[in-house]
Design brief:
The protein has 17 helices and 5 strands. The termini are far apart.
């Protein structure tokens, strides 16, 4: 496998069309509802127009939820409310239609795709379309060992790129990106702390199923120890993912970068997706222009990452469950913005004022005759 040059993404990724966005803003100014009356929906509609290069904006007709799944070795340290190696059970619940994201997706008529990158189970237990991209069985314990080898990190990142291409080629017009993992928030917090230069306690949250104080202290210690291992490789994003990330995080990073290349807009779900996005931003600074932050999960690492990328969450309902559920809740808002932008009528142009008739030019003074201009000669008496 040839070495992957992440610097190429800087040249491949362009921003959404600024000229189209200006056209969308001008069209919005002509509509019957005054600009600003719809609040952030105006901004969303204009962003989507630029992403689609279309005025008026087209409806979002083929969205999809894409979830990257993996187990993290650090979960064995008691940093999660779920048992180590339990992500496979979460995946089975999604596939059976019993998880929150599956229920929401069914109601919203949005298909869900699960991609196994490092689940700690026999791949034969999962459908072939789920396990087809797996890199390894579980990621390493990041406080004492690398999550992946360099080759595995590249393989995972390439897998994410391949999934992005598959979605774009199939006509997917918007993706809700999430994860299904156990221990993933610990790896995500480590990545965010490393890239933002903060301490472990600043970014360590309590996870999707909140942990008690003792587990939180263990999680802080794990992030602190992993941070020591992360700092020497901060200049190399692929090595950073190999050292303290995981196969799911590496795949999500590749997925986000390639979605930006393919001009596919993405709604980010929670802290794991946000951490991968922060790594991707370090690779290509224009990439975040293609992403929306779906919601605020309450995880401090997510807030830190979104602030660094200047992404403002669309919703703040305190949804902590992960697995794409919070991001999917933002989809109706995006669809509503697209509908309003496209379907609100424009004002009738005001009739042109009648042209004023030009005032007649003043007549020139009469030219005096020669007799009038000659001096009079008095007659001789």
């Amino acid at each position: 496998m040839s070495s992957l040059n992440l610097d190429d993404f800087t040249d491949l990724i362009e921003r959404p069309d600024g000229g189209v966005r200006r056209d969308a803003e001008e069209r919005r100014a002509r509509q019957t509802l005054p600009p600003g009356a719809l609040g952030r929906l105006d901004e969303l509609g204009e962003w989507l127009s630029a992403a689609q290069s279309s005025v008026p904006v087209r409806p979002v007709e083929r969205p999809r939820v894409v979830l990257f799944a993996g187990d993290h070795g650090i979960a064995a340290q008691g940093v999660s409310a779920r048992p180590a190696g339990g992500a496979a059970d979460l995946v089975r619940a999604v596939l059976a239609g019993e998880s929150p994201v599956a229920v929401l997706a069914r109601r919203l008529d949005v298909p869900v795709r699960v991609v196994d990158m490092a689940l700690d189970c026999d791949p034969a237990e999962l459908p072939a379309e789920v396990a087809g991209h797996r890199v390894r069985r579980g990621s390493g314990r990041i406080d004492t060992e690398d999550a992946l080898t360099s080759g595995e990190a590249e393989q995972a990142l390439r897998a994410g790129m391949a999934v992005a291409d598959e979605e774009a080629d199939s006509g997917t017009d918007l993706v809700v990106l999430g994860d299904v993992s156990v221990g993933g928030t610990t790896a995500a917090a480590t990545l965010v702390a490393a890239l933002c230069g903060t301490d472990a306690s600043v970014v360590t949250g309590r996870g999707g199923e909140p942990i008690d104080d003792l587990a939180w202290m263990r999680k802080c210690a794990a992030v602190r120890d992993a941070l020591r291992r992360a700092r020497p490789v901060l200049g190399d994003q692929l090595e950073l993912l190999a050292t303290v990330g995981g196969a799911d995080l590496a795949a999500m990073t590749g997925f986000l970068l390639q979605c930006a290349v393919r001009r596919t807009p993405v709604i980010l779900d929670g802290v794991v997706a946000s951490a991968a996005a922060l790594v991707a931003q370090r690779v290509a600074f224009r990439a975040p222009d293609w992403w929306l932050a779906g919601h605020d999960s309450g995880e401090p690492a997510q807030a830190k990452a979104l602030d660094r990328m200047a992404l403002d969450p669309l919703l703040a309902h305190g949804v902590k469950v992960g697995e794409g559920a919070g991001g999917l809740l933002a989809l109706p808002l995006v669809r509503a913005a697209a509908a309003l932008s496209a379907e609100l009528p424009e004002r009738e142009p005001e009739p042109a004022a009648p042209e004023a008739e030009p005032e007649p030019e003043p007549e020139p003074d009469p030219v005096p005759t020669a007799s009038e201009t000659e001096p009079s000669v008095p007659s001789a008496e």
